[in-house]
């Protein structure tokens, strides 16, 4: 599904990614976690084509960035910071994105607008939206377009409790229908509840990647994460 091989990236003299290797299979919900500065956002930006890497390779369903638009149609990306034209409505922005992906399912769009409670706000200019509303609109677009993989950078930031519950339910449905989810988060309790696999990134390298049950045992993801930061050798898997 998604294959990352020997990914390297530096900013000036500082090495951010130091040989990231990761395989994500169809139907996985993978939580990508790590301390600030570990390289999570840089990894996502390279996968989605926002940044170039100095070394390494990324493939999604056998396609690479060199395959252009066909590669980009394999995923929908929700960044932590969403930049749009302030005078464009949420509805028009989603319809624009749907056209890019060749999707014209208005009924599906209406369903997700209702699920996230955006019926009254969806046709207002996005410049009037709160941070949480921007994330709701992005999630509506993602689930409406229904790509093979949804990639998200801190997708729960700004969401109200009801929207978080909707998000969890829709992620479950999406994966059950064959979708794949790859998202970074600082909310370890959320990752523990909705992910079936977790990858921990430390100083630009994956130090732990396994199914959630194997990782936490009778402990918690929070305890495992803290232990991995201190005792990398003890918790690493190859």
Automatic annotation (TrEMBL):
Which Gene3D superfamilies does this entry report, sorted A to Z? P-loop containing nucleotide triphosphate hydrolases (3.40.50.300)
Which CDD domains does this one have?
ABC_DR_subfamily_A
Taxonomic superkingdom:
Bacteria
* Keyword Endoplasmic reticulum included in the entry's annotation: no
Decide whether keyword Nucleotide-binding is in the record: yes
> Entry's Pfam families?
ABC_tran (PF00005)
Q: In what residue span(s) does the ABC transporter domain sit?
A: 2-228
GO MF term (any one): ATP binding
Write the record's keywords in alphabetical order, separated by commas.
Answer: ATP-binding, Nucleotide-binding, Transport
Q: Spell out the PANTHER family in the cross-references.
A: ABC TRANSPORTER ATP-BINDING PROTEIN ALBC-RELATED (PTHR42939)
Q: What is this protein called?
A: ABC transporter ATP-binding protein
Native source species: Peribacillus castrilensis
